[in-house]
Amino acid sequence: xxxxxxxxxxxxxxxxxxxxxxxxxxxxxxxxxxxxxxxxxxxxxxxxxxxxxxxxxxxxxxxxxxxxxxxxxxxxxxxxxxxxxxxxxxxxxxxxxxxxxxxxxxxxxxxxxxxxxxxxxxxxxxxxxxxxxxxxxxxxxxxxxxxxxxxxxxxxxxxxxxxxxxxxxxxxxxxxxxxxxxxxxxxxxxxxxxxxxxxxxxxxxxxxxxxxxxxxxxxxxxxxxxxxxxxxxxxxxxxxxxxxxxxxxxxxxxxxxxxxxxxxxxxxxxxxxxxxxxxxxxxxxxxxxxxxxxxxxxxxxxxxxxxxxxxxxxxxxxxxxxxxxxxxxxxxxxxxxxxxxxxxxxxxxxxxxxxxxxxxxxxxxxxxxxxxxxxxx
Length: 377
Ligand SMILES: Nc1ncnc2c1ncn2[C@@H]1O[C@H](COP(=O)(O)OP(=O)(O)O)[C@@H](O)[C@H]1O
Ligand SMILES: N[C@@H](CCC(=O)OP(=O)(O)O)C(=O)O
Known about the structure:
Strand order of the largest sheet: 3-4-2-1-5-9-10-8
Mean pLDDT: 91
Largest sheet: 8 strands, mixed
Distance between the termini: 19 Å
Bound molecules: adenosine-5'-diphosphate, ligand VHF
Oligomer: single chain
Number of strands: 15
Helix content: 25-40%
Order of helices and strands: HEHEHHEHHEHEEEEHHEHEHEHEEEHE
């Protein structure tokens, strides 16, 4: 696709029907570990304006831990995981109570959704998340999403809401992603470094990653810093979704397409949300090893993976799970959703469609991975 101009990207954001807005902890809370109602109310006012003009907004809000540690008597954001989970349990309630009040002033309802990594991986849960979000939006509510910090174990956490917001933008097929933080834009280096310069437009985020020096969080409550925000902008760009990054006080102008913060151009056309999910979220549970012919066909991008071209199956998985498709050298060629359980596949290997039908029955005469469920890596 042709690289759009900054004005085109800003216009696309202004015209977005469905917007995912992500706001960081430092934009909603005070360093003492309490909510900052004034700043939260200002953000709600900006979102309500878009909502009342007919836009659909999904809010991914951090801040549970940062709003909970003060009321629980901690002087600073705790580092112990159980402490953090307890703070999140308290802070999430406070956060939602404040959002509910603030949105109610505009006659708007909010709906809380707490997500774990597995909800974006397992196909059934993914479909449930999607259906609930769509229904909330259809009913005019503002879904407010956070990671389920109190239940997620450390090993299987997103840990930051930046990447989660990009996945949510895919799930709801958003037209724009707005990343709100405590810095007004992306800089060529962390703003604390002398000489760092503000960047107002990133035509290709993958190229920019090589030229920008990104650092960790600048506050005592944020988590991912600019690294995870750039990753979120990259996932959005690759998914065909324009993004803008700026400070929370610029939320209104950012959503209106004004030239604030840093705009990121999409670098691909929009894919189907299902394919994007396979590409970004689905965790492969096993591997199908393709022979040379099947490897070429898969690499060509338009072919299904047939049992006749598969040499080996590895791992335990069920029909519908994601699997790697590797070549004989063990290189990953593609990721796909497999049509059969791992135990069913060995008897199918090397057989063409007619043989599968004759020896195993009609229900086996199908590709192992259909091309619609396959994404090249
Ligand atoms: N190249 C950069 N440009 C802008 N900010 C950067 C850069 N590298 C690191 N940062 C830091 O990232 C911080 C924002 O990330 P973070 O603290 O995680 O915010 P949030 O809580 O909003 O998610 C900024 O305050 C800034 O200090
Ligand atoms: N889920 C955590 C926040 C995680 C996170 O991404 O924080 P931030 O870097 O402030 O966006 C919470 O609500 O405290």
